[in-house]
């Protein structure tokens, strides 16, 4: 498979429509699951025929399709997985996303023409693991979600340039290490490692004391109780330059269970942000023509400029990053340490031990920040979301829990979907209504590759499916039309700000 020459925007899809929507709105690649062996069983997912049709649709538009095959399989599933890989070979998909090493080697043997990507479930946290997987045939590692930005740099500096690094940039986060959680198994019998997670980490928890059964006490973050494990969502929109500069090859949007609108909005936003990066960093002109080959800014060992690049804020916070790193007390002779050293925390001692071993964090060639237009910075707030964070990328501002709720913020509503635009009568748009539309209302129309079109609904010209005039559109799932002087693509979403922002349970 041909290597990419610029950062990849990787979008989710839970069905064939989602795949096509992602491609229409600029995805360089789409990841999706089949009817079995993937880590999301809630979406409808794709059949083999869907994969064939979806791969053809994507390839005709310069995009690729990756299939999730990333469960932790049991013995009785191995033969079926072998048969499934053989079936996937004939669909035209481009890569398999795997977790289990046995499945990786099986896929390499059965379908050598398919690229192999190692899932975040594998928990890759260092360059030694990445290099070992590369030798086994992997051409991409999806880093553990717990990795900080400095770790991405360090891995990129110590692996082959043709080994892709995929990192998450947007969407829901899991409270468990790289998603390997057993809470759902214990509480519901639904296996989170087989795509059936019931998301009990989002539930509301209280405390019951052993000798007082039946008396429930809130664990009081608020008077209403607390949600112990309910992680914030990720939003790296305003930090993509840091992530790309640090060696990330593929930027992954989470959300295979999300709506087509979510896929369209976030794919369009992140693709547009990457285009801004490419122009402002001097790799492309405004029309997308290449000015110079793309390359990240990580300084490899022995590369010119390594000694001149001073530490930035990411490097300075590097050793605060992963509190789960092992304590080196057992590896250091306490008798050889001064009393002052002996009083240091395990992490401080570890940092000194690593430094004594000759380790030095990778630096990057400095560059001015990429400035995004306002509409891009605002886009993540126009889909349903929990409180946002930057995940674990910046140790000084780590992700935390939403302790007082598990619902989603919803400041914008989809009010319609475009069915057909015609130029007659100065332009007319036929829509399938979703929510109320009335004269004077400001509506945004999501267009591929550009800022949303702002449109004020006129006082006249609204019609029902029979062409009869109506005062407003107030019947969901009915066909209406309205004046529209600008051509609008089929399936484009029409959205409007809610009069009262709400919390939406999902």
UniProtKB/TrEMBL annotation:
<dbReference type="Pfam" id="PF16325">
    <property type="entry name" value="Peptidase_U32_C"/>
</dbReference>
<dbReference type="InterPro" id="IPR051454">
    <property type="entry name" value="RNA/ubiquinone_mod_enzymes"/>
</dbReference>
<keyword id="KW-0378">Hydrolase</keyword>
<dbReference type="GO" id="GO:0008233">
    <property type="term" value="F:peptidase activity"/>
</dbReference>
<dbReference type="InterPro" id="IPR001539">
    <property type="entry name" value="Peptidase_U32"/>
</dbReference>
<comment type="similarity">
    <text>Belongs to the peptidase U32 family.</text>
</comment>
<keyword id="KW-0645">Protease</keyword>
<dbReference type="GO" id="GO:0006508">
    <property type="term" value="P:proteolysis"/>
</dbReference>
<dbReference type="InterPro" id="IPR032525">
    <property type="entry name" value="Peptidase_U32_C"/>
</dbReference>
<dbReference type="Pfam" id="PF01136">
    <property type="entry name" value="Peptidase_U32"/>
</dbReference>
<feature type="domain" description="Peptidase family U32 C-terminal">
    <location>
        <begin position="410"/>
        <end position="495"/>
    </location>
</feature>
<protein>
    <submittedName>
        <fullName>Collagenase</fullName>
    </submittedName>
</protein>
């Amino acid at each position: 498979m041909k290597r990419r020459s610029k950062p990849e925007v990787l979008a989710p899809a839970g069905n064939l429509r989602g795949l096509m929507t992602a491609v229409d709105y600029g995805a360089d690649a789409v990841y999706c699951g089949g009817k079995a062996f993937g880590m999301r069983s809630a979406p409808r997912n794709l059949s083999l025929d869907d994969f064939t049709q979806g791969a053809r649709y994507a390839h005709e538009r310069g995009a690729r399709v990756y299939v999730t095959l990333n469960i932790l399989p049991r013995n009785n599933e191995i033969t079926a997985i072998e048969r499934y890989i053989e079936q996937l070979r004939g669909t035209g998909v481009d890569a398999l996303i795997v977790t289990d090493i046995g499945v990786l080697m099986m896929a390499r043997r059965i379908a050598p023409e398919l690229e192999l990507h190692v899932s975040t479930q594998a928990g890759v946290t260092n360059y030694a693991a990445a290099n070992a997987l590369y030798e086994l045939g992997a051409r991409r590692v999806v880093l553990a979600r717990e990795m900080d930005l400095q770790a991405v740099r360090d891995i990129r500096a110590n692996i082959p340039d043709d080994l892709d690094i995929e990192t998450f940039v947007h969407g829901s986060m899991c409270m468990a290490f790289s998603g390997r959680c057993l809470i759902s198994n214990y509480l519901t019998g639904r296996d989170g490692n087989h795509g059936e997670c019931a998301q009990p980490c989002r539930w509301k928890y209280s405390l019951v004391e052993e000798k007082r059964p039946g008396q429930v006490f809130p664990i009081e973050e608020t008077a209403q109780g607390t949600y112990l494990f309910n992680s914030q969502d990720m939003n790296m929109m305003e930090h993509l330059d840091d992530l790309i500069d640090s060696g990330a090859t593929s930027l992954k949007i989470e959300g295979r269970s999300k709506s087509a609108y979510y896929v369209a909005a976030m794919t369009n936003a992140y693709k547009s942000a990457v285009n801004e990066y490419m122009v402002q960093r001097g790799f492309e002109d405004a029309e997308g023509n290449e000015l110079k080959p793309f390359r990240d800014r990580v300084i490899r060992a022995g590369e010119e400029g390594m000694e001149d690049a001073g530490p930035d804020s990411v490097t300075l916070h590097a050793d605060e990053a992963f509190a789960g790193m092992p304590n080196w007390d057992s590896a250091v002779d306490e008798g050889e340490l001064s009393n002052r050293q002996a009083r240091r925390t395990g992490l401080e001692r570890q940092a000194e031990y690593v430094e004594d071993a000759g380790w030095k964090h990778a630096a990057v060639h400095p560059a001015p920040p990429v400035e995004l237009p306002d509409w891009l910075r605002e886009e993540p707030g126009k889909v349903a979301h929990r409180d946002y964070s930057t995940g674990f990328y910046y140790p000084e501002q780590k992700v935390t829990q939403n302790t007082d709720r598990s619902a989603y913020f919803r400041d914008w509503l989809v009010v319609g979907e475009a069915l057909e635009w015609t130029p007659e009568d100065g332009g007319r748009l036929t829509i399938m209504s979703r929510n109320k539309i009335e004269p004077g209302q400001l509506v945004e129309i999501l267009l591929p590759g550009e800022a949303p079109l702002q449109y004020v609904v006129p006082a006249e010209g609204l019609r029902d499916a029979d062409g009869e005039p109506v005062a407003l559109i107030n019947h969901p799932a009915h066909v209406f039309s309205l004046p529209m002087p600008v051509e609008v693509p089929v399936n484009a979403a029409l959205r409007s700000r809610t009069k009262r922002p709400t919390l939406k349970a999902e």
